[in-house]
Amino acid sequence: MAKMPTVKDVAEHAGVSVGTVSRVLSGEAAVKPVLREKVNNAISALGYRPNVTARALRTSRTDVIGLVVPDITNPFFAQLAASIERAALECGHSLMLASSHNDSEAEQSHVSAFLDRAVRGIIVVASSDGSGLELPASVPVISLDRRFGTFPLVSTNHAQAATLIADHLYGLGHRRIAYIAGPTDTEAGRIRKEAFVSRMDGFAKTGEAVDLEIAYGRFDYESGERIARNLLSRRAQDRPTAIAAASDQQAIGALRAARDLKIDVPRKLSVTGFDDISLANLVVPRLTTVRQPADMLARRAVSLLLAEPPGTADETVDGSLIVRGSSGPCPQPKADMTGHTN
Amino acid sequence: MAKMPTVKDVAEHAGVSVGTVSRVLSGEAAVKPVLREKVNNAISALGYRPNVTARALRTSRTDVIGLVVPDITNPFFAQLAASIERAALECGHSLMLASSHNDSEAEQSHVSAFLDRAVRGIIVVASSDGSGLELPASVPVISLDRRFGTFPLVSTNHAQAATLIADHLYGLGHRRIAYIAGPTDTEAGRIRKEAFVSRMDGFAKTGEAVDLEIAYGRFDYESGERIARNLLSRRAQDRPTAIAAASDQQAIGALRAARDLKIDVPRKLSVTGFDDISLANLVVPRLTTVRQPADMLARRAVSLLLAEPPGTADETVDGSLIVRGSSGPCPQPKADMTGHTN
DNA sequence: CTGAAAGCGCTTACAG
DNA sequence: CTGAAAGCGCTTACAG
């Protein structure tokens, strides 16, 4: 608990002024080598460490980046947080994390708390669309994955990624497909769904029609399981032959439901996810999905935030299809198939 | 980007001194109601928000709690982090999170960074035993789940919890059991293993002998899968009838391996975990495990940290057995069974 | 109960 | 290149 040494102590020990100490600390200004040497010696002799609070007060700048996510126990967000922390660290910044529990009021107050704390910048994965509007924002703010207010967005190209899945399923011959969508109040949820739907509509025009059914839920395991259970609790001929989910968690829930109903995946049913969380490669069967490049997203978000001046343009990163065991050829042509063949 | 109003602005607007403003802000000192009123009006009129940095510099105290975990993408730690954030928020504190990636040097430097930042206190889930020794620690530090340095530890009663699992498996008739242990350089890993082993030894004395095999790994999915694959790639009569893992992640990996090898769980093999992460209830089959009460652990850690004076005694919380589908009766008496029956 | 003033530990014009 | 001094926005003895 000994009192920490200050610049003043260092200055005395080195026989220079505090200004000089500060200048060698910053490394910016030119200091005569002899003095620099003395100061550095004093610093290590005393075990001096700069007081970041004082520095922050003086410069009204810190090296802390604030991150707000809707739910840190969501594996995708945890992944994102880990990547951001790494990216921030590489730039000499540290991370302050807050979880909004999908509550836009909590989100709002976390952002305010960060602002009060004079963080260097804020990255937020919005809890829902329309949150975060009308913010004073004295520091740069970046939306990640889901738009927050009107701040620049770094995200996966949800439309492109969803299209990848649509093509994959159609290519496997599936013509009766169910789509488990994410919340309609999130842009990510909507875009993924719309891109998927419009791709299927496109196929209907040039090839075979697709019987597409859409169910809406949250992005979590439970939603996926519940919805899939509904979808699959029908006579076999009325069931979809493929379920495309808007998140890996939903897809894993769907796998669970299929298993409970003794529906063989992928022989009787194909299931696909979205995100490529680490678990996707561990479930049974391994999940076909589209990878969101968390590392790249994190890196881009941090660098937009730290850029001078801060970036203002949206950025988009393509997803990539990861084919694993949960998707396969459509079981067999339906007897009651409508639409033409080519 | 307008300059934020300060106490001085408020004081002028209210026609009082800055001291008075500060006093109504703190709520501690007595202030004449008329003045208090004026000050409050000025505060809302100007939209004044206290500058936390200045306050921190002056009082050398903040309301930030630092948390270091070995890996935020580990679902158990994510759960813990979420619980701690909630507990901290309830006490008007916010959370600063760092992930050490199981590297004790990174851990060390994160702790230093928190110290530099004059956090209110630090909670650390140690990356391994022996990390965090000889720390100056100008603020309270609490170890959570795994001991950090010599700081007080809040943890699940690993021994009691491991015993619960041992009893469960023995009670189901299993006599050839493999235990997938956690890293031997973590206390949690060692205690869980030792308690399990010693319970089994106890049975050997009073009942039937247990053929116990131990394999060591990390706490993650991959370790569990790899080790289980080894364990199970033998002739059926040489295989364990039950695998107890030191973490849910390992157990889920083991489930994966069993599935790949077409070994029916629980009919041919029982598998148990440890933690009760949310996924445990979603894998196929659902995982029998022992629940670590994350919420309670978090709450206790935060309250020890914030107590005046800070708590110094270790605290332990019991785990509870959660029986699900991955464990069942031992397949059938072995022909080559040694040991007596009772 | 209230005001005037010192000071937390830095950084940064300002002189020299 | 270096020192002396002001000041970031607060809180808190110290008088009164």
Largest interface (C-beta under 8 Å): A-B, 46 and 47 residues
CATH topology of the largest domain in chain A: Rossmann fold
> What is the number of helical segments of chain A per DSSP (H or I, 4+ residues)?
11
Rounded to an integer in angstroms, the radius of gyration calculated over CA atoms of chain A is: 26 Å
Main sheet overview of chain A: 6 strands, parallel
| Neighbour order of strands in the largest sheet of chain A | 2-1-3-4-5-11
Order of helices and strands of chain A: HHHHEHEHEEEHEHEHEHEEHEE
Counting copies of identical and different chains, the oligomeric state is homodimer
What is the CA–CA distance across the termini of chain A? 81 Å
Instruction: Bin the helical content of chain A.
Output: 40-55%
Which regions of chain A have little confidence, pLDDT < 50, spanning 5+ residues?
334-342
Average residue pLDDT of chain A: 89
Structural class label of chain A: alpha/beta
Counting structural domains of chain A, the number is 3
Annotated CATH homologous superfamily of the largest domain in chain A: Response regulator
Topology, number of strands of chain A: 12
Query: What would the principal axes of the Cα set say about the shape of chain A?
Result: elongated
CATH architectural group of the largest domain in chain A? 3-Layer(aba) Sandwich
Class of the largest domain in chain A in CATH? Alpha Beta
Strand content of chain A: 15-25%
